[in-house]
Specification:
Layout lengths: L12 H9 L1 H11 L22 H23 L7 H30 L23 H27 L8
Helix pairs in contact: 1-4, 2-3, 2-4, 3-4, 3-5, 4-5
Length: 173
């Protein structure tokens, strides 16, 4: 029986579970803020109902903004440079962000059904609190990936500049 000299990779479960579970408050926040939901942003009674088609785009954009903000916050934790295996951490974080996006969507829909008024959506399914643009769910993971890229790029450039200014030779790790 031989033992391998290579340690087994451990999946950073917190980077999967925390972004996924954060979808629950994000979904509730979506329902609270979005037109057609509780509508706390505009408080305009004309936008309180989903029967007005002008509500549908801002409703989707509200979720998009929440997911992009969550993705950028996750990227700050992923790009700290103290991870043993940063590639696995990034992929796990992106998977968690995707799960959180789907959970946010489901939670927002559930909140609307539980706490919102009864809606007759027989004329159009978008009258009920819903998401019309499904690609919005990809914005959280995309924001995470792009933000990690930018943070890593800026961090590398900053460390090289610091070494150059202090007269130290060599390249950044």
């Amino acid at each position: 029986m031989t033992t391998s000299a290579r340690p087994a990779r451990r999946l950073p479960w917190s980077l999967l579970l925390v972004p996924a579970v954060s979808g629950i408050p994000a979904g509730i926040l979506w329902w609270l803020l979005a037109p057609g939901g509780l509508n706390l942003v505009t408080r305009d009674p004309a936008l309180a109902s989903g029967t007005v088609p002008l509500v549908w785009l801002p409703r989707d954009l509200t979720l998009a903004g929440i997911l992009v903000l969550a993705g950028c916050l996750l990227a700050v934790f992923l790009a700290d440079g103290k991870r043993r295996d940063p590639q696995v951490a990034l992929l796990t974080g992106i998977a968690g962000a995707l799960a959180g996006s789907v959970l946010a969507w489901g939670t927002g829909i559930l909140a609307a059904r539980l706490f919102g008024p009864a809606v007759d959506a027989s004329a159009n399914a978008s009258i009920a609190f819903s998401l019309r643009a499904w690609p919005v769910l990809l914005l959280g993971p995309a924001a995470t990936a792009v933000s990690v890229f930018v943070l890593e790029l800026v961090g590398r450039a900053g460390s090289r500049r610091w070494r150059r200014l202090n007269g130290q030779a060599g390249t950044a790790p």
